[in-house]
Design a protein that fits this description.
The protein is built from seven helices and eight strands, in the order βββαβαββαββαααα. It has 213 residues and is α/β, with parallel strands linked by helices. It folds into three domains: 4-92, Sandwich (eubacterium ventriosum atcc fold); 95-125; 126-185. Strands 4-1-7 form a three-stranded mixed sheet. It has a three-stranded mixed sheet with strand order 2-8-6. It starts with a strand and ends in an 8-residue tail after the last helix.
Length: 213
Amino acid sequence: MDTKTLYLSLEQSILVNSRKAHIGDIAKLFCLDKDIYQEISKLLVFTFPNTEDGQQVVTSMKLIELINTKIKDLVIIPIGSPETIVYYKNPVPIRKLTQKLKAVILIIFAFFGTGFSIMSYNGDVGSKDLLADIYRLFTNDYTSHEPKGLSLGIVMYSIGLCVGMITFFNHGINQKDTDDPTPLQVQMRLYEQNVNQSIILDSERNNKTIDAD
């Protein structure tokens, strides 16, 4: 009997558009036999409950078990992640006005929160006194506690801080100098990976992972 081979690949996480999650929705499949490919792609793995959003951890072993119950003489080669987090987002209508208000509120909080953090840091390290010392060093003016040119130094320091952050993060302009991800994007990807690992561990400890029997 001619043995067929199926390659099954899982990503660390994936988003589905339907409450009914089939193997073809959550895994990448490759098989030379197109009939087997179509049959396996339509196998139902689980169904999300009638809630707004949901997430479920599924292992590759569970998918292999489902496939073997359908097709016996099939060699399955799993590659990629040993488990995947399947996310479902309820396709609710997008309210543009609400989204704009949320964006404005988020921008306001981010602006004032970041500004307060920077001012607190500068106050802790004594940036104002340092700028005054630098002014006295170049002007030899020790007549007052706060030199007259201190305000100009603070303004230039603020401009330099803004330009430095934009340059360092390689972000904030329409065209970046390189195609490399910014440090902020790298940190966001690392954060996403840590969140996925935490979800997988919590699901395993609570016995909520869909795994082979």
